[in-house]
Amino acid sequence: MKLTSGLGGQLTIDLGALARNWSALDKVSQGALTAAVVKADAYGTGIEMASKALHAAGARFFFVATPDEGVAVRTALPDAHIFVLNGLYPGAANLYIRQNLMPVLSSMEMLEEWLTKCVERNEAYPSAFHFDTGMNRLGFRLNEAVVVRERIGRLGYAPQMVMSHLACADIPNHEKNRTQLALFSSVMNQFPGIPASLANSAGLMTGRAYHFQMVRPGIALYGGRAVVGRKNPMAPVVTLHAPVLQVREARTGETVGYGASYSLSRDSRLAVIGHGYADGFLRSLSSTNSRPGAKVFLHGKLCPVVGKISMDQSIVDITELGANLPRPGEGVEVLGPNVSLDEQADAAGTIGYELLTSLKGRYNRVYVGNGYMPGE
After folding, report:
1. What are the Cα distances from residue 31, in Å, to 179, 205, 319?
2. Which of 14, 60, 244, 259 suits 315 as a labelling partner, its CA being 20 to 30 A distant?
3. Residue 266, Cα to own-chain centre: how many angstroms?
């Protein structure tokens, strides 16, 4: 591939695919509202552009992690309903109110600070309540449900939504899913008439029992695998190409990269790629003689990374290309139709989430598929 700039890596983000993924999930979740999780810079795709594409597809409810992310979505989408998953940061209530952000309250301290502000301004500002049903992460304890209900009852306050989060939704038959569903249903008995939300991407795909009134897909929107052991039905959103810097000859027995952990077993041709862990190409994608690492796609073939990935460069064995060698400046597919996000994540021993959110490198970002968005 010829890179657009010719001077560095190119990250191409297909906004049309992103919007179509949301629409596909919205069809699966019929009967429930389909939100969009756009935290972590919309999983590395760019929060402003991604939010606009998702809004054009029909999304009206957005989940971010921090108030700063909420402000970014508010700037892009004045009419969006925005929940802040990390809750109410101490002393920041005025910012949430000014930007019309809804904190996902998860402790008595957060609740008291928010209610104090509501009383002070004589306004029932909206929020969501998060109950921990088995993650031991953020969330009210289950035994606090009655206390929370009684506290808001004295003020006549009601949340916009009550939610929890599944720990093992990526394994649909895991017993913990059914346990959490039962616990969450018991919590909801304390809040009759209040909308509920439990399902992330995997929960959405697991079954309607998990949908309640709102689903919150994240990774599936961006083309990543949500459920272990199933074919990923989502369209890829991100394509990544990195430039060839140099092609070189190397001899049998010579070593490649830092630590000399990879020795060549044959005379080889190597391509040095301008792409390293500073660009989100994780060091865990390195290879040794005993452990394979990542592969990239070049001239119709998958070519293995050899040796350790360094900060700015990685090295690829292109011997199998024969005389069909790349030229400096040519783009190598690191992520795309021939090397999926999930395949690279598996090679790194991680998940697609980490790879996507690591793509903060020195890329020329190119957005395509804008035609899907009305008015763009």
Report:
1. 23, 14, 54
2. 14
3. 40
Give 353's contacts (C-beta < 8 A, 6+ positions apart).
43, 218, 219, 224
Return phi, psi of residue 250, to 5°: -140, 155
Q: Tell me the pairing of strands 161-163 and 214-215.
A: unpaired
Q: How far apart (Å, rounded) are the C-alpha atoms in residues 333 and 331? A: 7
Cα–Cα distance, 115 to 211 (Å, whole number): 29
Structure tokens at 9: 């890596």
Question: Two tokens at 280?
Answer: 């989100």
Q: Active-site positions?
A: 39, 258
* 301-304 vs 295-298, strand pairing mode: antiparallel
- Torsion, Cα of 287, 293, 299, 301 (10° steps): 120
Tell me if domain 31-222 and domain 238-370 are identical in fold: no
Fold of the domain spanning 238-370: Lyase, Ornithine Decarboxylase; Chain A, domain 1 (2.40.37)
- CATH number of the 31-222 domain: 3.20.20.10
Which residues fall in the annotated binding site for substrate?
A: 137, 311
Q: Where are the domains of the chain?
A: 31-222, 238-370
Q: Which residue has the tokens 């996902």?
A: 104
Tell me, rounded to whole angstroms, the distance of Cα 18 from its chain centroid: 12
Tell me the binding residues. Answer: 137, 311
Name residues whose C-beta falls within 8 Å of residue 260's C-beta, 6 or more positions apart in sequence: none
Give pLDDT tens digits along the chain (376 positions): 777 655 789 999 999 999 999 999 999 999 999 999 999 999 999 999 999 999 999 999 999 999 999 999 999 999 999 999 999 999 999 999 999 999 999 999 999 999 999 999 999 999 999 999 999 999 999 999 999 999 999 999 999 999 999 999 999 999 999 999 999 999 999 999 999 999 999 999 999 999 999 999 999 999 999 999 889 999 999 999 999 999 999 999 999 999 999 999 999 999 999 999 999 999 999 999 999 999 999 999 999 999 999 999 999 999 999 999 999 999 999 999 999 999 999 999 999 999 999 998 789 999 999 765 444 4
| 82: Cβ contacts below 8 Å, ≥ 6 apart | 61, 62, 63, 64, 70, 73, 74, 99, 100, 101, 102
